[in-house]
Amino acid sequence: MTNPLRDPRDRRLPRVPGPCALVVFGVTGDLARKKLIPAVYDLANRGLLPPGFVLLGFARRDWGDGDFEQIAKEAAKKGARTGWREEVWHRIAEATKFLPGSFDDDDAFDQLAQLLKDLDESHGTDGNAAFYLSIPPNAFPTVLKQMERTGMADNEQTNSWRRVVVEKPFGHDLASAIELNRLVDEVFTADDVFRIDHYLGKETVQNLLALRFANELFEPIWNSHHIDSVQITMAEDVGIESRAGFYEGTGAARDVLQNHLLQLLALTAMDEPVHFDAAALRAEKIKVLNAVCLPKELAAYAVRGQYDQGWLAGERVKGYQAEEGVKPQSTTETFAAIRLDVETRRWAGVPFYLRTGKRLPRRVTEIGIVFKKAPHLPFAQNDTEELGANQLVVRVQPDEGVTLRFGSKVPGTTMEVRDVAMDFLYGEAFTENSPEAYERLLLDVLLGDAALFPRNEEVEASWRIIDPIEALWTHQDEHHGGPELYRAGEWGPRGADEMLARDGRAWRRP
Ligand code: BG6
């Protein structure tokens, strides 16, 4: 029942979902152990899970409830963001269930359907359930068919809400994404499908919207009259770790550009939404994605690379080809950089440079807005030699915050002007730590708030941008050879620097 004294618009009050079960398929996988289970604990610890909450694991393991509970506890202890409190885990443990089964096992799914009904009696879940598909994409059709067959996806039949959470990759290209979307939409109604792009759950990404639309300062200059270019970087120092099985044949463009970086571009470039809700946000993002244009000379503006052996943080690291599970002579790219243009009145002529890579010097994600130079400088030329372009940098991670770079007078008797930086740091401005992206997104799923989840159209529009790039690279593989190598610990292949130099620009060194 809703509290009549509570104004639903008051976001300062914690938003606590109604009773429900969270069913995790693939609960033995990396994502469940490293992100989902710790997020459940953190939510419980913050008092954000309802009393009638059940965590239900489904996997092909010969486990009982107790075994699963033990493994989940270890995962939660290891990955939790908030302090460990035994009594909090105790409450979760009491409502932790495990169901063994494989995805083609009809009996197991019949049992699951029954169990979801019984959980209302035993734990007061009201029959509500969110299904988290933390499974390889090729298992999606089987699991979705089982859900349809047993009726467990049907809100009316179960007289409750039933939602599904789909993890990326959302397909491999446009055609497979359309097919996947069709499959999901056959079983669940569109409003009950939550596609996770965990970058949207990051506080700093949401802050981009606050920065732009809650202030008067930036929006009037957020256009081609004042902005020279935009650089979006997502760099990682890690290699592919133990994920060759997934990464081979996927590569940096499908893994990160297609989703995380295009979402960041959409949030950076979009117009103000009419409201801050799912439909209005989506409408603006989709306009941007549909306005994205690839450069005519695509080969010069779609650069890929693959890491070779090198040194990182004083340690010698292997090249991609030497990683376990990677095929000899693999042409999978571990670095991708592209130039995109957004063909709208606001952005015409402003290039958006996007890059991502593994085994780069450090882990950093940022959105750099590079402003045009002042049209006239009333100073002597040698007084402004060290004055660069003004920049606004949204630091997504780490050192979360915002930096503004501008020229300032150097103390002394001359009018020398040099770049300085003004920093806002989350860690210093607020006492509360930022929640993990999965914590926020899981909570939103249980609340039924879809504002931070991309929809079909966005996924498909993003593949429309990526498909021609992948086609070009496949063609290059066949006729010219694979990606350019870069030494681990360097900022990607030379081609990426040449791409910006061709436009008279250079990458920021974050
Ligand atoms: C995932 C990619 O989506 O994001 C990984 O599949 C990548 O390859 C990860 O390492 C990075 O996430 P974050 O939040 O650490 O930047």
Task: Explain the overall architecture.
- The chain has helices at residues 30-45, 65-79, 86-94, 106-123, 140-150, 155-158, 174-187, 203-213, 244-247, 251-269, 278-291, 298-301, 426-429, 437-447, 456-479, 494-502; strands spanning 20-25, 53-59, 96-100, 129-133, 162-167, 193-196, 227-235, 292-293, 302-308, 310-312, 315-317, 335-342, 351-357, 364-371, 391-397, 401-409, 417-425, 484-487.
- By secondary structure, it is of the alpha/beta class.
- It has 2 domains: 20-167, Rossmann fold; 200-441 and 456-501, Dihydrodipicolinate Reductase, domain 2, CATH 3.30.360.
- Strands 7, 8, 9, 12, 13, 14, 15, 16, 17 and 18 form a 10-stranded mixed beta sheet that branches.
- Helix 1 links the parallel strand 1 (20-25) and strand 2.
- It is globular and about 80 Å long.
- It starts with 19 loop residues before the first strand and ends in an 8-residue tail after the last helix.
- The mean pLDDT is 93.
- The structure holds 6-O-phosphono-beta-D-glucopyranose.
- Residues 198, 236, 255-256, 365 line the site of 6-O-phosphono-beta-D-glucopyranose.
- 6-O-phosphono-beta-D-glucopyranose binds at residues 198, 236, 255-256, 365.
